[in-house]
Amino acid sequence: MKKIRIGHKSTQRQQRWFVGLMVILFFPCFFYLKLDLNQFKDGLHQIPHIANMMMQMSFDQFPDLMDGLLTSLIIAFLTVVISVVISFFLAFVIATNTAPVPLLAKIIRAIIVIIRTIPVTIWVLLAVASIGFGSMAGVLGLIFPTVAFLTRVFSDQIDEAGKDIIEAVKAVGGGWWNLVFNGVTPQLMTAFLASIAFNFEITVAETVILGIVGAGGIGVLLQEYISFYDFKPLTLGILIVFITLFLLEMTTNLIRLRLSGRGHK
Amino acid sequence: MKPMLQINSLKKQYGSSTVALNGIDLEVHPNEFIAVIGPSGAGKSTLLRCINRLIDPTEGSISFQGQEIVGAGKKQLRQIRSQIGMIFQHYNLVDRLSVLENVLHGRLGQMSAFNGVFSRYSEADKLAAIALLEKLGLEEQIYKRADELSGGQKQRVGICRALAQKPSLILADEPIASLDPNSSRIVMDSLHANCIEQGIACLVNLHQVDVAKRYATRIVGIKSGKVVFDGKPEELTDRMTQHIYEGKEHQMFQQGVPVEQAV
Ligand SMILES: Nc1ncnc2c1ncn2[C@@H]1O[C@H](COP(=O)(O)OP(=O)(O)O)[C@@H](O)[C@H]1O
Ligand SMILES: [Mg+2]
Q1: Domain CATH code at residue B32
Q2: InterPro entries, per this entry (chain B) (predicted)?
Q3: Nearest Cα to Cα of residue B108 among A200, A44, A69, A179
Q4: Ligand 1 contact, B262 CB (< 6 A)
Q5: What count of other Cβ atoms lies within 10 Å of the Cβ of residue A73?
Q6: What residue of A is the nearest CA neighbor of B48?
Q7: Does CATH place domain A62-260 in 1.10.3720.10?
Q8: At A5, is the pLDDT very low, low, confident or very high (cuts 50, 70, 90)?
Q9: pTM for the complete prediction?
Q10: CA–CA separation, A215 vs A199, rounded Å?
């Protein structure tokens, strides 16, 4: 007896195509890179050795590392504060319900898409290239992608959750500034704060990594240790970064939980 | 008597195919309490939102107290809107502000942007807002956050906000569609009593024909974007009601308008 079909035909076909294509592409890609299994095996032998070196953690560099960490956190903080101020206004300029000049909104949206297609690393490299190594380059380079990200997030929140409020403020004869400050901002404040907390977390992680390309902070130290095969302080550095990011994630999660908890009351 | 609101051959088309309003003619006189009835998707919400231009009509003219709304510039439009109160099905309050602040929002249209943004309401406005809240039985709720209220209380705050505008016309879009019968009665009573007392004309969209008949001085039946009935409540026969709501099945199933979207 013929079995009864239960799935959605075109969805299943799409999925089959997708998996098939991946399998077909895998082999040419594999050989293109000439992935060498021997190199891989040699690398495996090295692991105990490197692990051993990394186990000999030294605290000699601890003050330097903490100093670097503080710099990284400050870079991230400044980046986020400046970006929040810029994005807050840009978001209201581009959100569909509040855009004062639709053409301007379109242009800014297009610019944001362009900024976001360029990886953060490239932005920081550009900043380093134009103003030299250091924290300033970090802040400058991170501002572009961060503003783009926050503007996008804020404007989505405005369009999604602010619709009813915007209608109400418009209906009483309120103007643009009233929409922004009397209606949407109080309504969405907690949502905005949650996004900012989330963004701060991402930015700290980015700052650490981007120190490696010269944006200042603890990443610069890590980069030095790696290039001199100086594994002892490297281990400590990685540990510090790990603990910081872990604590940060815990805190932002807690903040977001509290914010959303209050929102549901 | 001269109409305070005159709508002539009003049309609204969404996209290229959905005709929500297909030539509406309507006059509203002072002191009228008009119920607009009709099935989901008939165009009731669109009609109300065209009157204060929350939606821009495609064609036609709307004149409110001698001013043309359809072509009005930004500033004039704000001034006109400030004289028209609006009440929403989902209350549209700012959840995180106090009840009093929400009511005071009714004053924003008549304040400078600076005073509005910094919430510098006059003491007279505050007193008036508190008086309104007391009048609608919300004296206990004045300093509560808006999202701590029940649906019926929220809608009464919505009414207070509209009344705080000191409007000459109130538009209410399904004000009781999300409320239980008891709250519905309180809300409709408050709205009706205040409009009559203060000589505010009111256009209220309703699903329920019995509610419309109980409160309205006049009923307007809308079907597929057209006025198919306009008369006194006692003139609305059962046959007429059936005719108005007959379109419902037709609209929902043959044109494929999803129920949620149309509600
Ligand atoms: N924003 C919109 N975009 C497209 N179509 C819409 C929109 N709003 C309403 N419509 C359509 O216009 C018609 C009238 O809708 P509406 O005025 O909401 O009716 P009612 O309030 O009587 O239920 C419906 O067919 C609805 O689907
Ligand atoms: Mg409706």
Answers
A1: 3.40.50.300
A2: AAA+_ATPase, ABC_transporter-like_ATP-bd, ABC_transporter-like_CS, ABC_transpr_PhnC, MetN_ABC_transporter-like, P-loop_NTPase
A3: A179
A4: yes
A5: 19
A6: A171
A7: yes
A8: confident
A9: 0.83
A10: 18
